[in-house]
Amino acid sequence: MNYPNGLKKVHTNHEINYSNRGMPLESELNDSNEYYREIEKAYIYKKPTPIKITKVDYPSRDKAIITQAFFTVPSTTDYNGIYNGYYIDFEAKETKSNTSFTLSNIHPHQIQHIKNIDKQQGIAFLIVRFTNLNKTYLLMAKDLINFLETKNRKSIPIDYFQEKGYLIKDGYRPRIDYLKIIDQIIGGNKK
Length: 191
Hints:
Layout: H1 23-38, E1 43-46, E2 51-57, E3 65-71, E4 79-83, E5 86-95, E6 100-102, H2 108-119, E7 123-130, E8 135-140, H3 141-150, E9 155-157, H4 158-164, E10 166-168, H5 178-186
Parallel strand pairs: 5-7
Antiparallel strand pairs: 1-4, 2-3, 4-5, 6-9, 7-8, 8-10
């Protein structure tokens, strides 16, 4: 693959790349959000991960290369934006498990952030895709918080998603029409 400035990335059969785990869901959400922006339905964006650049090489004036950086603060959730006057904030995760979503996949500071958004009456939720089952669920913050506060488990069983969550059916455009679920929850009311 050719990259800008003539750099090439070479992959061998021995290299294992974990950096794109979760990309199919993320890509589909990014495409869905782009579609929502195109039709002026909502303005929801993927949040960049905050990093601090500590070393840059300048082989020439127009070819700066970041050679060292680190995460400055833990990121909150993956996506945020505005829809019909409502603040939207959510985290998106994938699991290969057929039976549950392991809570270690979502960090404590992300859970706290979801709680904070919910407390301020924003619309906060978790989108989880069970990849082997090809099922994607939206779980509202109140149901996530209720589970965490009442159950002593290290994972959320798929039964809980089926009971309390909302199955997001795959579509063409948008691929993941999660705003259709949000409309059901808020009653389609426009502020």
